TrEMBL record:
<protein>
    <recommendedName>
        <fullName>HTH lysR-type domain-containing protein</fullName>
    </recommendedName>
</protein>
<dbReference type="GO" id="GO:0003700">
    <property type="term" value="F:DNA-binding transcription factor activity"/>
</dbReference>
<dbReference type="InterPro" id="IPR036388">
    <property type="entry name" value="WH-like_DNA-bd_sf"/>
</dbReference>
<keyword id="KW-0804">Transcription</keyword>
<dbReference type="Pfam" id="PF00126">
    <property type="entry name" value="HTH_1"/>
</dbReference>
<dbReference type="InterPro" id="IPR005119">
    <property type="entry name" value="LysR_subst-bd"/>
</dbReference>
<dbReference type="InterPro" id="IPR036390">
    <property type="entry name" value="WH_DNA-bd_sf"/>
</dbReference>
<comment type="similarity">
    <text>Belongs to the LysR transcriptional regulatory family.</text>
</comment>
<dbReference type="InterPro" id="IPR000847">
    <property type="entry name" value="LysR_HTH_N"/>
</dbReference>
<dbReference type="GO" id="GO:0003677">
    <property type="term" value="F:DNA binding"/>
</dbReference>
<feature type="domain" description="HTH lysR-type">
    <location>
        <begin position="1"/>
        <end position="58"/>
    </location>
</feature>
<keyword id="KW-0238">DNA-binding</keyword>
<dbReference type="GO" id="GO:0032993">
    <property type="term" value="C:protein-DNA complex"/>
</dbReference>
<keyword id="KW-0805">Transcription regulation</keyword>
<dbReference type="Pfam" id="PF03466">
    <property type="entry name" value="LysR_substrate"/>
</dbReference>
Length: 294
């Protein structure tokens, strides 16, 4: 059964006249008759009642008309979708991220991409940087927003997204809250509200190394899973926490944010992708991201 046969059948079912149907199809009547006969033979049913005066649909023909129209509609939609996928205008885009990469720019880029490419489905997956690099390499992620200090990206293409220092959050009534900056040597004496090692070993060890460069070891306080929980404990006077400097723009009631005097830790986020797996879908997202940066 061919698409051409289905379209011819639909036109004849609408016209109920071989001459008029052939004219609409820009073909001669005999070839049309042969197409319909071949279709009936394949289906093993009579689709039309024919006599010298008129052509009528049989009961089977009326049923098959609805099915044929549905098939053509689905086929046409599939053709449009395949074309859109080839142009990167449809399909599924899988993006990995770390929590600190979710900035205003990230959200605006997502919104603009969805506006420009409404047929694309975006799947977001929160993964630590090392896991993202592996997933991008094997192709299960298209794009990742990763901490470049914590994962090797030699085989990936990437664009720098964020480069900013870490700061600390203190309770407003903390003795160091009146200082303009706080020394890392002072911080080592205060409880650090932080997440457990098992959540992200690479980042945890990176923070340890930040203290170790000054021959210091942090004094850990409560362990929490999220920055929001850490900030709540800090506001309650249980210690301090480390946050990217942009976090202070949001500001939480009861907290003050301070810069660290010494060179300490910087947040570096890059958008990474595998050049070996580049496709129009990925390139379209990269273009929108660059437009937003501009």
């Amino acid at each position: 059964m061919r698409t051409r046969q289905l379209k011819s059948f639909i036109v004849l079912a609408e016209e109920l006249h071989f001459g008029k149907a052939a004219e609409r199809l820009h073909m001669q009547q005999p070839p049309l008759s042969r197409q319909i006969k071949a279709l009936e033979n394949e289906l093993e049913v009579m689709l039309f009642k024919r006599n010298n005066r008129k052509v009528e649909l049989t009961e089977e023909g009326a049923f098959f008309l609805q099915e044929a129209k549905a098939i053509i509609t689905r086929l046409t939609a599939a053709q449009h979708t395949l074309k859109a996928m080839g142009n990167g205008e449809a399909g599924t885009l899988r993006i990995g991220f770390v929590d600190s990469s979710i900035t205003e720019r990230f959200v605006i880029t997502m919104g603009r991409f969805k506006d420009q490419y409404p047929k694309v489905i975006i799947e977001l997956e929160e993964k630590v940087s090392v896991e993202q690099v592996a997933a991008i390499g094997e192709g299960s992620l298209h794009i990742g927003f990763i901490r470049t200090q914590l994962a090797k990206t030699h085989e990936l293409s990437h664009i720098n997204v964020i480069n900013e220092p870490y700061i600390i959050a203190l309770a407003n009534n903390h003795p160091m809250a009146e200082q303009e900056t706080v020394s890392v040597y002072e911080l080592a004496k205060e409880p650090l509200i932080f997440f457990p090692h098992r959540k992200n070993p690479g980042f945890y060890n990176w923070v340890l190394n930040g203290f170790a460069q000054y021959d210091l070891m942090p004094k850990f306080g409560f362990e929490v899973e999220r920055d929001q929980a850490a900030e709540m404990f800090v506001a309650g006077g249980f210690g301090y926490t480390l946050l990217p400097s942009t976090s202070c723009r949001m500001g939480r009631r009861g907290l003050t944010y301070k810069r660290i005097q010494e060179p300490f830790l910087d947040l570096r986020i890059s958008m990474a992708w595998n050049p070996a797996h580049e496709c129009p879908l990925v390139n379209n997202f990269i273009d929108v991201f660059k437009q937003q940066a501009g």
